[in-house]
Amino acid sequence: MIRDATFVDWPAVDRMARQFRDSAAPWIAYEPARFRRTFDALVVQEHGCALMLENGKGILMAIALPSPFSGELVAQEIMWWIEPEARGRGREMLDAYETWARAIGAMRCGVTCLDDRTANLFARRGYERAELAYRVY
């Protein structure tokens, strides 16, 4: 089951954010208080999304904002983590994310990924590659 996250989910979200940073994105400086404020805002904002996989085994957070180019509402995933033992549930979470985006009137739905396996899931779902991102330390 996937449901809207609530404030009481914070301990699980914090744990998953740390795991995400440690295993997938070590370049991210994690500031728990700042991230807590972001999570809390997404839980209550009309254009904020925080979806929780049952038993605290996954989180998908997103926000929808008007495009600076067209003004259309565009949804963008901010963080997505599924515990290793619950992997394979990504399609369900993606369904819930897309449903939320359509419900608020988003014209586009964006996701990011760090590996080919996830990129292949997105491609099978009809997502098109939009950009390549680079960073310098």
UniProtKB/TrEMBL annotation:
Keywords: Transferase. Residues 1-137 form the N-acetyltransferase domain. GO terms for molecular function: acyltransferase activity, transferring groups other than amino-acyl groups. InterPro entries: Acyl_CoA_acyltransferase, GNAT_dom. It holds the Pfam family Acetyltransf_1. This is Acetyltransferase (GNAT) family protein. It comes from Palleronia aestuarii. The lineage of its organism: Bacteria, Pseudomonadati, Pseudomonadota, Alphaproteobacteria, Rhodobacterales.
